[in-house]
Amino acid sequence: MTKRKQGPEETAATEPSESEQLLFGGPLRYDLGWNKHEDAFLQLNLRSIFTRLPHLIATTGHLAWEADKNALRLVAFAEIGRGISQAVGLIAVNRALAHILGEGTTTDRLAQAGPALLVAGGTAFLGAVLRALSTAGTGQLEPKVERVATERYLAHTAKVELEAVEDDEFHKLLDSASYGAGSARRLVKYCQNVINALMSLFAAAGVLAILDPLLLPMLVAMTLPSAWAALSVARRRYMSFHVWVQHSRAGQLISRLLISTDAAPEIRVHNVGPFLLHHFRAMSQSQEGEQERLARLAARTGLIAAGWSGIAAAAAYATLGGLLWTGAMALSVGGTAILAIRTGSSSLNNVVLQINWMYEESMFVGDLHRLCEEAAKRTIPVGGLSLPKEPTQITFEDVVFTYQGKGNKKRALNGASLTIPTGKIVALVGANGSGKSTLIKLLCGLYQPDSGRILWDDTDAAAADRSELVSRIAVVGQDFYRWPFTADVNIGIGRPEVPLDQKRLEAAAQYAGAESFIEELPRGWKTLLARGYKGGHNLSGGQWQLLGLGRAHYRKGQVLIVDEPTSALDAKAEQQLFDQIRTLADAGQTVILITHRLGSVRAADLIHVLDQGEVVETGTFEDLLSDDGQGRKLFRELYRIQAAQYGLDGATLPCQNGQAPSANSGKR
Ligand SMILES: Nc1ncnc2c1ncn2[C@@H]1O[C@H](COP(=O)(O)OP(=O)(O)OP(=O)(O)O)[C@@H](O)[C@H]1O
C-alpha cells in the first residue's frame, strides 16, 4: 500500500507544552505516522465507505443482535416500513401534483388528486407511528449495545498478562477502545438513520429516473462536495483523537487529583491546589488550541464545499430551465422534478452525512476490535502441566529478569538461585531494590523469567497451568489493594469465586487480629470502606494491613507470601502476627516473609539475602550472624547497623519481640 503524505494542516503542533514537559517528562502526543493506522485512514474515502457499508451495517447488526434480538427486530421492521411508506408517500405526492397541474377544471383536478392526497396523508401518519416504534426500539438497544461492547473489551483486558497492562502502547489502545464502546452505541443510531435516508433517497432517485435519467447525475454532482467535506473533517477528527488520546487522559488525571480524597490532605497542607490548577489549565489550553485548529480547517473545508455545491446546483437548475424553455420537458414534469431533486439532494446529503458519522464511529469500534485481538495475543495462557499436589520445595534456578520498558536494561533479577522448602518459614531480606518483590512476582507467575527456571519439585512453573499456580498462592503484597467495598468483601475477595462465608470471614479476621476493629466500625462487617461515598469510612494504614492479611488467610493458599507485613503495625500487632505465622508454619503452611526488620526474621527456618538481583547469602539467623571469617557478611552488616540504632550490640544481643528498626535506614 502506498504511503500517503500528511499535509501540514493534517498534523497537530508537536511541541510539548511546559506542563507536559514538567509533569510527565515529555510530549504525551503520539506521532502517528501513516504506518500504524494507515489502513483505517486510507479507507476513509467515498468509494471505500460505500463498499464497506454492508459490512458496517452487518457488524452493527451483529452487536445489536447479541445485545437484544427483539429490540433489533422491532427497529428493523419500523425502519424498513418507514422507508417504504416514505417512497409510497413521495410517489403519491407526485401523482397528486401531476393531477393538479394537469388539464381540466379546478374541481375535477382536485377530485382526481384526492385519492393520491389521501395516500400521502396515510403514509405520513404511518411514518410517524413507525418512527415512534423505531425510537422506542433504539432506546432499548443503544445502552445494551454499549454494555455488550464494554463487556467485551473489559473481559479481554482482565485476562491479559500484567506486562501488557504496564505497556503504554496497550494502554493507548485501551483508551481508544473505551471510546469505541460509546461509538458502538452511537453506531446503532447512525445505522438506523442511514437505512432510513437510503430508503428516501431510492424513492427520490426512482422518481427522477422515471422523469428524466439525465437528472440523476446532477443530483450526485450537487452532493459530492459536501460528501468530500464531511469525510475530510471526519478524517482529521479521528487522527487528532489518536494523537491526543494520552494527553487528554493526563489532563483528566490532574483534574481527578484535584478532587481525590487520597490526595486531598497533601493538596491542602502543601498548598498543591494552585499548582495543579495551573497545569490543568495549561494542558486544557493545549487541547483547546487543537480544537480551534480543527474548527478552522472544518470552516475552510465547508466553505469550499458550499462553493462547489452552489455551482453544481446552479448548473442543475439551468439545465432544467433549458429543458423547460425548449419544451423538451412539460411544466408539470418540471415541478415534480424540482420537488424530487430537492428531496433527493437532501436525502443524499443526509445519507452521506450519516454514513460518514457511522464510518467515523466504526473506526473507534475498529479500535475496540483491535484491542480485543491484541489482548487475545497477550492473554494469560490457559491449561498446562499440573503442579505436584504436595511439593517438597520450590527452586529458583539461575533466574534472570528485566522489566520491559523503553531503555530499561537493568536486570531486576540477575541469576537468582534459591530453594524454598515447603512447610517452613522462609525469609527474603536485602536492601531496597535488591529484587525481593520481583522474585515474588515471578513466583506468582505475574512475569516469566527471561532465562532460568522456577521449579515446583521437578515441574517447571513456566509450563504449569497458571490458574492452578495462582490457586496455590496467597499474597499480602506491599501494594495490596484497598478495595473500595465493604469490610466483608475486602476479606472475602480473597476467594472471589465462592460466596462469602461469615464463619470463614470471622476466622480470617481473628487470624489477622482485625476482628475487634471490624466490629467497632459503624456498620460492622457491612461498613463501606471508601471515603467520599454515602456511609463511607476509612481505616488506618495498620488496619488496612490487617485486612490484607485476613484476605490472604481467607484465600488459604498452599504458599502464603507476606511482603513487608508489619510496616504499618504497632509492636503488639506485629508480635501477634509473627506468633500467627509460626503457628501456620507449624501446621505445615509454607510462609515466605519479606521484611526489612531483620530482628523479626529470627523465627524463619531459612533466610535468603538478596543483593543486586542475586542471592548472596543463605542460612538460619544464627548462621548469618556468625563470623566465620569467610567473605563479606551482608546480613551481619545490615543487622549491626539496625542494632546500633538501638544502642545494642547487634551480633550478640538478640532483638526483643523480634523488633528492630527498618533496614531502609541502613541502606548501603
Ligand atoms: N514495574 C517495574 N518496572 C520497572 N522496574 C521495576 C519495576 N518494579 C521494580 N523495578 C526495579 O526492579 C528492581 C528490583 O525491585 P524490587 O521491587 O524487586 O526490589 P525490592 O527488593 O522488593 O525493593 P524494596 O525493598 O524497596 O521493596 C529495582 O531496581 C526496581 O527499580
TrEMBL record:
Q: Which SMART domains match?
A: AAA
A GO term, aspect molecular function: ATP binding
Locate the compositionally biased regions of type Low complexity: 9-20
Instruction: Identify this protein by name.
Output: ABC transporter ATP-binding protein
What kind of membrane protein is this, topologically?
Answer: Multi-pass membrane protein
Outline the extent of the ABC transmembrane type-1 domain: 74-356
Pfam families in the record, alphabetically? ABC_tran
> Where does the record place the region Disordered?
1-20
Q: Which residues cross the membrane?
A: 194-211, 217-234, 297-317
- The principal location of this protein is membrane
* UniProt superkingdom: Bacteria
Where found? Cell membrane
Keywords assigned:
ATP-binding, Membrane, Nucleotide-binding, Transmembrane, Transmembrane helix
Matching InterPro entries, A to Z? AAA+_ATPase, ABC1_TM_dom, ABC1_TM_sf, ABC_transporter-like_ATP-bd, P-loop_NTPase, Type_1_exporter
Residue span, ABC transporter domain = 394-637
